[in-house]
Structures are given as C-alpha cells and as structure tokens.
Amino acid sequence: MRVFLFCFSWLFSASFNASFEGLVSAPLSGKINIKAQLQGVDVASSKFNQRASNITGTVEGTPDSLTWNNFSGKKKKKKYTLTGSLNNFKSPKIKTTLNGDDIKIDTDIEKKNNDWSINKLVGKYFDIVFDASGKIS
Fold first, then answer.
1. pTM of the model
2. How many Å apart are CA 133 and CA 112, to the nearest integer?
3. What's the Cα-to-Cα distance from 21 to each of 18, 33, 37, 87, rounded to whole Å?
C-alpha cells in the first residue's frame, strides 16, 4: 500500500488486531486494545530529502497508553531501534530508548499539572556524552 501524507510518501505492509472486553451497552467502560505490526515500511520526504527504509516493529494502544516495541529501520545505511511507552494521556509519562550505530538515548519524562519533569535524559551522539534532568515549568 502506498500512502501520500503532506510531504511524505509511505510504502508499507501491516497487520492490525483489535480487541474489546466489556459490555456493548457501556463501551467506554470496557477494555480496548489495538495492536499494529509493521513490516518493511519505507518512508520518504521529497521536501526534506530524507528516507527511512525497512521499518519494522509493533505499536500497541489502549485508551490511556501507547507502546512501541522494537521499532527498527535504516537511514543512510545505519540501523536504529526505538522502544518505549507513553502512559496516562492526561498526565503523560514517557519512557523511550533509541539505539543506533552513532546514537544512544534513554529517556524518562513526565508531566504533572503544568510542569514537565525530565527524570532521565542520558545518551551518546558519536563521541558526545550527555546526561540531563530537571523541570520545565
């Protein structure tokens, strides 16, 4: 399937599963789980002159969470893998890792009221090592 969205072109194969556990008369109180398995996705942007290829991975969503698992792909012949989660959309807590030949990032960020807390932001980009934490108000 080929999809054009704004300035991006997507070519992909995916499988989707959805489950619902609960009363049909009260769907908002039921448990909903949606899972997408992506295989061999190619994304290109003519505007930004960028391309990522052979993206695979699993995305799973519930009414209050989103997880991405072993999302891997190639950009300029380098492989990258992304894994993480976003929980509680009203007060989000985001944990994610990005690993590649030239970059490694591990994050733990959350929002409480109007403040964002960076509990952990550590990584390495080529030979540059960084480590940050703090609050953004």
1. 0.75
2. 15
3. 10, 9, 21, 20
**CB contact at 8 A, 93 and 87:** yes
**H-run or E-run covering 14:** strand 8-21
Structure letter (DSSP) for residue 92 = -
Among residues 39, 105, 49, 107, the alpha carbon closest in space to that of 73 is found at 39
The string of pLDDT tens digits covering residues 31-73 is: 888 888 888 888 777 777 888 888 888 989 888 899 999 989 8
Contact 124, 130 (CB under 8 A): yes
Q: Is the separation of the CB atoms in 43 and 70 below 8 Å?
A: no
How far is Cα of residue 88 from the mean position of the Cα atoms in its chain? Answer: 15
Residue 127 in this model has a pLDDT that exceeds 90: yes
130's CB contacts (< 8 A; 6+ apart) are 121, 122, 123, 124
Whether the pLDDT of residue 10 is over 60: the answer is no
